[in-house]
Structure formats: C-alpha cells, structure tokens
Write a sequence for this structure.
C-alpha cells in the first residue's frame, strides 16, 4: 500500500513538472534569438515578443488559476511523499522539493514581475503593483526615459525574462532527474533484496537436505 501511495505521489510530481516544461518549450522560439544566437534579432522581433507576452499577461483569469492549481498539485505530491519519509525520500524528494521551490521563487519574483513590466510598457522604473497600469511611453529602450530608474532598458529586461525561463526549465529538469534517480535506486535496492532472499532460501534448502541425510544414516545402522 505504501508503494502504491508513493507511486501516486510521484505521479502528482511528474505531471505538473512536465506540464511546466511544455509551457517553457513553447516559449523557447521567442527566447532563442535573445540568448542562444549571436546574430541580431529581426527588426520587428522585440515588438512581436512584447505583443506575445502582453497577450499571455492579459489572458482570462481561469488561465492563471489553472496554473496555480497545478503548482499546488506538485506541492501536494511532495507532501505525500515526505510524510513519514524514508532515507531515500529525504535524499531525493527533499532535494526535489528544494528545486521545485526555487522554481516557484523564480516564477514569482522574475517571470510574473517581468510580465507586469512588459504589460505596462515602461522599463527600469521599479516593480508594478498588482492591477497597476502605466499609460504613456511605449518602450523605455536605450535612453528613452529620464531619471536614474532607467538603468535596465527594454532589451535587457526582455533578456532577463528569457533567462528566467531558461533557469526555470533547468530547475524542473533537475526535479525529473532526481525523481528518475530515486526510481533507479529503489529498483536496484529491490533487486538486491530479492537476490538476498533467494540466496537465503537456497541456503536453508541446502542445509535442510544435509540435516535429513545425517538423520537417516544412524537409523540405517541400527536396522543393520
């Protein structure tokens, strides 16, 4: 029963992790020109990227609610696996939970904040409060704004957002690797236990046969 509960909890961890990796993979074509190539992006690339990110940020409320529900489903899986944990759970699931929480922190502190900045259209002027809207300058690019708040421009802000997506993807891949490592370790342990059990049964069976032979020998001499 404990094995079945562990498998179900692993399922609750792997499904949200794979779900988020799929979302990040769908964003990879937009992030690639910023991080993974030395060639200059097309002239209208930044405008297209901003339009895409604004569309994501302006999605219906049901979309972020589903996203947050999936996040908590993953946390529920960790809670179930770490309830009365074994040594394997503490090692693999504990490290997986740390990585998962790092991913949540990156999502809240970088990605959500970056989407709010892109939605507002003004870069390098501080964090936007939930529900706040900025009307005015269309892009605080290179030297487009005034004051000391214009330290990070349009291109750098979008590059930071793309880098946050990459960091989040690496963290989630780490969760999958740790879960796969736990499965392999438990599988090898089960094989070793099965091997030891068979060897013990063979020794018991061999010892029983020798004992039966030594008992029969004296009886034969008495009859003789």
């Amino acid at each position: 029963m404990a094995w079945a509960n562990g498998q179900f909890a692993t399922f609750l961890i792997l499904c949200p992790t794979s779900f988020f990796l799929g979302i990040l993979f769908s964003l990879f074509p937009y992030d690639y020109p910023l991080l993974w190539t030395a060639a200059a992006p097309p002239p209208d690339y930044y405008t297209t990227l901003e339009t895409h990110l604004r569309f994501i940020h302006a999605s219906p409320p049901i979309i972020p609610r589903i996203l947050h529900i999936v996040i908590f489903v993953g946390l529920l899986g960790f809670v179930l696996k770490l309830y009365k944990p074994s040594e394997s759970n503490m090692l693999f699931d504990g490290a997986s939970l740390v990585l998962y929480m790092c991913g949540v922190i990156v999502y809240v502190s970088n990605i959500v904040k970056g989407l709010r900045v892109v939605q507002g259209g003004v870069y390098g002027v501080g964090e936007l409060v939930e529900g706040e809207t900025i009307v005015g300058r269309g892009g605080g690019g290179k030297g487009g704004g005034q004051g000391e708040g214009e330290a990070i421009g349009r291109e750098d802000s979008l590059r930071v957002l793309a880098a946050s997506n990459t960091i989040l993807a690496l963290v989630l891949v780490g969760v999958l690797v740790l879960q796969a490592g736990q499965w392999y370790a438990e599988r090898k342990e089960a094989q070793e236990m099965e091997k030891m059990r068979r060897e013990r049964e063979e020794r018991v069976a061999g010892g029983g046969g020798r004992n039966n032979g030594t008992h029969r020998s004296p009886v034969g001499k008495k009859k003789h």
Q: What stands out?
A: The chain is about 75% helix and 0% strand.
